[in-house]
Specification:
Length: 207
C-alpha cells in the first residue's frame, strides 16, 4: 500500500462529509432499505453504508481490498454494534461459492475497480438466482460535452482519486453483464466536480 493510499483512507470520510450531508447519505439510506437476507457489499471502504442496512439483513459481509480502508471498516463496524464480517478481497475475485447471497451492494466502487466487467461477473456468480444488485454510482455523462471533459481529465482524476475513473458507462456495463436492470434513477452527486456529478442509482436482478 502506497503512502498516498494510507493518506486517502485517513482523509476519505472528511473529504466526503459535505457530499454526504448534502444528500448522498439520504440516497444511501433509500437504496439500502430494500436489502434483505444474506448481503455482500463490495469495496465497502470506511463503512459509510453501515448505518443504513435494515433489520431484514440477516448477515452482512463487507469486502475491501485496501488494508488501511479495511482497518477503518472493522473499527466502524465494531463501533456501530452491527454484526458484520470484513473480508480483504478484490471485487474481481470474491472468495465465496456460487449462489451465496440474496443481495449485493456497490456504492461508488465500480468507478475504481480494476476490471468492472469481471467484478460484475463475480457479483452475478455469488448472487442466488433472482438475487438483487443494489447500486449507486457516478457515471459517464449523457452530455457529449461533459463526457469529453471526463475523458480528457480521466488520467489526472485517477491519480487524485486513488484509481477512480470519472467516465465509466456503468449502467451499460451492468446490462451487458447479464444482470437485468429493473430500476434506474438519474441524479447528481451533490457538491461534486462536474466530471463526477452524473449519478445513477438502481436495482438489478441476477438470472
Amino acid at each position: 500500500m502506497s503512502l498516498y493510499g494510507r493518506i486517502f483512507a485517513a482523509m476519505y470520510d472528511r473529504m466526503m462529509a459535505g457530499t454526504e450531508k448534502a444528500g448522498l447519505n439520504g440516497r444511501r439510506h433509500e437504496l439500502l432499505a430494500s436489502a434483505t437476507g444474506r448481503v455482500i457489499e463490495i469495496g465497502a471502504g470506511t463503512g459509510l453504508n453501515l448505518a443504513h442496512y435494515p433489520d431484514a439483513v440477516t448477515e452482512l459481509v463487507l469486502t475491501e481490498p485496501e488494508e488501511p480502508m479495511a482497518r477503518r471498516l472493522e473499527d466502524k463496524a465494531r463501533a456501530s454494534g452491527r454484526a458484520a464480517t470484513v473480508v480483504r478481497a478484490p471485487a474481481e475475485s470474491l472468495p465465496f461459492p456460487d449462489d451465496s447471497f440474496d443481495t449485493a451492494v456497490c456504492t461508488l466502487v465500480l468507478c475504481t475497480v480494476t476490471d468492472p466487467e469481471q467484478t460484475l461477473a463475480e457479483l452475478q456468480r455469488v448472487l442466488k438466482p433472482g438475487g438483487t444488485l443494489l447500486f449507486l454510482e457516478h457515471v459517464r455523462s449523457d452530455d457529449p460535452g461533459v463526457a469529453r471533459w471526463q475523458d480528457r481529465l480521466a488520467p489526472l482524476w485517477r491519480k487524485c482519486g486513488h484509481g477512480c475513473n470519472p467516465n465509466r458507462p456503468t449502467p451499460d456495463l451492468i446490462r451487458r453483464s447479464g444482470l437485468t436492470v429493473l430500476e434506474l434513477e438519474e441524479g447528481e452527486l451533490p457538491k461534486a466536480p462536474p466530471i463526477v456529478r452524473p449519478l445513477r442509482a438502481g436495482r438489478a436482478s441476477a438470472p
